[in-house]
Amino acid sequence: MSGSDGTSQWWRTAVMYQVYPRSFADGNGDGTGDLLGLRARLPYLADLGVDGLWISPWFPSPMADGGYDVSDFRGIHPMFGTLDDADAVLKEARDLGLRIIIDLVPNHTSDQHPWFVAALESDPGSPERARYFFRDGRGSDGSEPPNNWISAFGGPAWSRVTDADGRPGQWYLHLFAPEQADLDWTNTSVLEDFDDVLRFWFDRGVDGLRIDAAPAMAKRGGLPDADYGGVLQFRTVDWDGNPHWDVDEVHDIFRRWRAIADSYDGDRAFVAEAIVNTPERLVRYVRPDEMHTAFNFPYLKGPWEAESLRRIIDATLASFDPVGVSSTWVLTSHDETRPVTRYGRATTSSFFVADGQGEESDLALGTRRARAAALLMLALPGGAYIYQGEELGLPKVDDLPDEVLQDPMFLRSGGVMRGRDGCRVPMPWSGSAPPFGFSPRGVQTWLPQPESWSELTVEAESADEGSMLSLYRSALRLRRTTKGLYAAGLAWRESPSGVLDFDRGTALRCVVNLGPEPVEVPAADVVLCSAPVVGGLLPVDAAAWLLLPSR
Asked: Distance (Å, rounded) from C-alpha 420 to C-alpha 337?
């Protein structure tokens, strides 16, 4: 797809579909998703109407954090297949007109990465340890961590190693799980090796890279203590001047990478995962010589409230437009509570992990709101991301047995935080009982699917014109074919309290009713709605697209 300015900058307006490979489609019948399954389902994605795929990590990994603990950045995990399988996915996707971006996890490596294994076998001060943050502990016997930094998954961000003689040794830094050791990006060998990693995947034909935990990659010199304001949780949206998050030197890395991407033909793009505390800080990641786009976390995590959503939309556009960067809009991901569940809770925001945890969810209400949210997201200017199963209206599975949970968030919190496994349950494709066509009949999937998903399969929803899947297909088709929809910006109309009402250029009007009463819309102009417009009234928790009169 071309950008709105007629160039080949596909990433400006593309709708990308996130594939979590372990849970998308099982091609070899072992209960776990793989690249054979993904290849077989590529036509489904082309038919859905998305412009491309974002594939979560497919690298070799011990899976301590669902693949975000990488042991080889130039390979494919055997559970998913081989490099040949990856090449086949890239080729077949290209033949179907689909772009592909892959996850890169550069802040850390697995503790089983050859570099970290070598570091453990080497002495303090060695070149092998210099690739990571190995430090002596505090206190007379070094028994205290080097500083007070915390882990995203709970507890301190430092673990102590045992030396070859059996005595306690240095500490190493891990802002995430202990199995994910942070790299020191001031180290020349780290920089140069990742230059080659980027070229390895660009040479194979990937269209872009999504940079996981981008703000974590630089640390303030001297590794001083952090001021968490008394809240020992990873609340990065609250942090200002934190010494291990959003440190200015991180931008030097991205300028280096942008130069590599720009040396390739075909608009190779970077997408930053950057959860920072202000739009002004976020826009630094998408300056002309850095990342191309960034995930819009304030929008993703915001509540189902008209005033909040409008404020976030306006702030996003006001920050991004001056630097000539298109916005991205996203409702969920493999790390987030699914919208159908979240929007059915009393707490509809998700700024922090514990938001809404333990609250009952009215799934019928959540589904109505998720349908409206989809039309709102796909009407906004810029690009968008859809997480697998979002187009089916899948809820989060809140009742997975403790013994099947694998998220380190659950394990390291002692079960206080349920974690993200409930958002990663394998896709239901067909049939009336698990495994719903994800795997062959009788095979147990790696996370169990609920029996209640029989009405939420691709097969069932494809036959239902009123389904969530049919809504997404219609919206994506109209998004592609409505003349002028790719115009930049939007124009707000006057509207009652609780209603979002705006025009996209001269092509489309979007009305979203988050208020307490139905609102009037010109029914004759409605081309798509998330709930029926009866007697010219748009129901509560519903959205409609209206064609604007030709001028």
From this structure: 7
